[in-house]
Write a structure and sequence with these properties.
This protein has two domains: 166 residues, SPOUT methyltransferase, trefoil knot domain (Alpha/beta knot); 43 residues, Trp Operon Repressor, Chain A (Orthogonal Bundle), CATH 1.10.1270. 32% of the residues lie in helices and 19% in strands. The protein has eight helices and nine strands.
Length: 219
């Protein structure tokens, strides 16, 4: 079983998606498990402060290293003492671009720990001394690391045997190409009577020609 640990100030942000997606089915099959840690639990002081102003000035607040470090340690103390392969990942716009190759690599671990930043980001010493790697899901900015963590988790889970109904559902197995379904000619009121047909080769029953067509039109 692969356990995904999400370190986030907003653990409830994950609940809706995990209740509806293939990840829910994977958890029901005991192929994956999800655990959540709020770094505020490990913050000091009456107000459990997890952020502070950036050195050098600038807008916003920065998440402090110590609460995140303690949150990670609360997990790795258990996993590493059992000899279970564990990887700590910081979701970051400065991270390495996430790919299917990375998903296959991460699927070999028993525990993946995602550090989900907020505000203006996370103290750089987390990237340097706490995380094993930084991952970016795209060249754009989001308000937090929760959505990127879900993207990575689903891509990794899909690599596990039994998560998908058929192994062939993996696009890296079958390729990515245009797909069509019924009706063979689609019309709608808004298309003003014009019909949009399925490419005839897909209706031909000739599997060799269909495979060739998919290869030509695939990516």
């Amino acid at each position: 079983m692969l356990t995904f640990h999400f370190i986030s100030l907003f653990p409830e942000a994950f609940s809706s998606y995990l209740r509806e997606s293939i990840l829910k089915r994977a958890a029901a099959k005991r192929l994956v498990r999800f655990e959540f840690v709020n770094p505020r639990t490990f913050a000091e002081g009456r107000h459990r402060t997890v952020d502070d102003r950036p050195f050098g000035g600038g807008p916003g607040m920065v998440m402090m290293a110590e609460p995140i470090y303690r949150a990670v340690q609360s997990i790795t103390r258990k996993t590493k003492s059992r000899g279970q392969k564990t990887r700590v990942i910081l979701l970051s716009t400065r991270g390495k671009a996430f790919t299917n190759t990375a998903a296959r690599r991460l699927a070999k671990y028993r525990h993946l720990i995602f550090i989900c930043g907020r505000y203006e980001g996370v103290d750089e010493r987390v990237a340097e001394h706490v995380a094993d790697e930084e991952i970016s899901v795209g060249n754009f900015i989001l308000s937090g690391g929760e959505l990127p963590a879900l993207v990575v988790a689903e891509a990794v889970a899909r690599q596990l045997k039994g998560v998908l109904g058929k192994r062939e559902s993996l696009e890296e197995q079958k390729g990515s190409y245009p797909v069509y379904t019924r009706p063979p000619v689609w019309k709608s009121k808004n298309t003003r009577g014009r019909g949009f047909p399925v490419p005839p080769v897909l209706l031909s029953g000739d599997h060799k020609k269909i495979a060739e067509w998919r290869t030509r039109h695939g990516r």
